[in-house]
Fold these 3 entries.
Entry 1:
Amino acid sequence: MVRAKKHLGQHFLTGPGIATQIAESITCHRHCNSVLEVGPGTGALTIPLLHRGDLDLHVVELDEESVDFLITEELLPSEKVHGVDLLRWNPDLAFPNGKHFIVAGNFPYNISSQILFQVLDWRERVPEVVGMFQKEVAERIAEGPGSRTYGILSVLLQTYYDIEYLFTVHEDAFDPPPRVKSGVIRLLRNDMIDPGCSFLHLKRVVKGAFGQRRKTLRNALTNAGFAESDIPKEFLKERAEQLSPTDFHRLAIALLPVAN
């Protein structure tokens, strides 16, 4: 076993079993076999991804020592190891001409939400995501309305993806062991192209609604700058966590600015 330092809030898998389960959870949805692994570290997940034999794998890794290790150990050719921050990376460098790609990884806990917002920006190119998150985050993403953990990412991701919580990973599977359990989820792109408004407008409405989640939508949305008269009456006394993604689409459409 190769031991690697912790970086960017990441905890490295120490045995092949969990990594193999994650790798085998990739379905190649919509016949896509190109994979971008985020934060491979010293290759615990990279190796079982390569062992599948049916994937065109690229990795994005910010830590210079891990990049050097992946190249010097010849896990991947250097042109498939991208030593850069994912949030500043252009996917055309690995997958040109708008090619689709799957996102996979043992995601760093402290930027996992940012990674998922990046996936949303790439939603027309990413048919599948398989990854490990802090258990609380994984559950929140997969949770339906009515739960106290249901939130902004739940609504936005469930608009464009069908989400399944696959399994829980205990602390002793990592080095260093985290203080929390982890969860592995799978996102498969659905057929949603246009919920009736732009993604930016939908995100603004959802963020406004959850910005004061204990308040009714009347209060939360007016505090976020929307006019009470534009909020459908059926939603005025509801709270954000009570609305399904489809309800949010209807609400967002009702709150579209009126063209002059």
Note: Strands lie at 12-13, 34-38, 56-60, 81-82, 102-106, 128-134, 161-169, 174-175, 182-189.
Entry 2:
Amino acid sequence: MSLIRRLCLIYAIILLGAAAINYIPGLTDDQGLAFGIFALDPFDDALHLVSAIWAFLAGLISNRSARTFLILFGAAYLGDGVFGIFTGWGYLDFGIFTNENLGMDWSYQRIAANLPHIILGFVALTAGLIMGRRP
């Protein structure tokens, strides 16, 4: 199995973990914040689960499907994280459409809440673009 396909399988595991955060005792505080930083609702859980299934299938199918997943997923999640910093809400959960713009904020809370999407998105997008050029 190629490295790009294995990376998709790793993403599937990470995303399954993200979907499970709300259901593992001790990972959320009294206010429902995961790690005391951000809240995940059932819609977020579903988004992570669907993304995990997509990553898993892409990793099993072919190098081309793995590359397509990494590029599309990476662009979507990276953009969502950047939007989160600038507006306080992401677009993948429709937050920018249903909530008032909170403005740009460089606080620890805002950065920490959006950093997972920024890192996952950047790594996936970069890997998809770079690994896709190799024969």
Note: The CA atoms of residues 9 and 56 lie 5 Å apart.
Entry 3:
Amino acid sequence: MYTRVVRLPSAALVSEVVARRLLQRLIELQRTRPIVHVCLTGGNAANAMYERFAELAKGSELDASKLQLWWGDERFLPATHPDRNSLQAVSRLARTVSIKSADTHMMAAQDGRKDPHECAAEYEAELDGTHFDITLLGIGEDGHTASLFPDHPSSEATSRLVIGVTDAPKAPAERITLTLAALNRSDEIWVIATGAAKASPVARALGGDERLPATGVRAETATIWFLDDEAADGLPEQYRCPE
């Protein structure tokens, strides 16, 4: 298990490099296994990458029938709400990647549902023993990842794979999220962060500040942080050289 930082000059280049590497890695994995499980994230940096990925995937060797898409967290909102992570990702990817609805494991929407706790239990049952080949994550300005927030009960959940959140410090207050136990059940985790506002939490997470949930992100094989120069500005000494 190792952690690596890939530092790039701009946010646009982060989107380009991650999209290209993700496409290449998925094609490589599909050559050796029948199904590839990918856990997706939300956020501006991820959405920019999905845009570019969709462009690159057109005409590529990617076999969408071998993909299973999952989500690390979701905002507990109506299914058509534009702020839902799954809607943002799928609306971009589906332009060129033909993924069947049965292979797209979206977390439950708010429509007619009791609460995010009930839906979290359902998603955990659906997840069952799934092991992710690649998990994509972001990091918030406060050091949260997925919907696990610092100094909040969500970051203390250790016995469950999926939990409901009803008092998140960031709107919307109701969410569903995988816990670190589920997120770290991944061969590779790729954390994407861009912009000066991410410099402090990135430095703290890579510096080992256990108060931040993002510090606990550790894949079984490789954890790779893709950063632009602004997000990498405060890196600890061992991570300062660009790669």
Note: The first helix runs from residue 11 to 30.
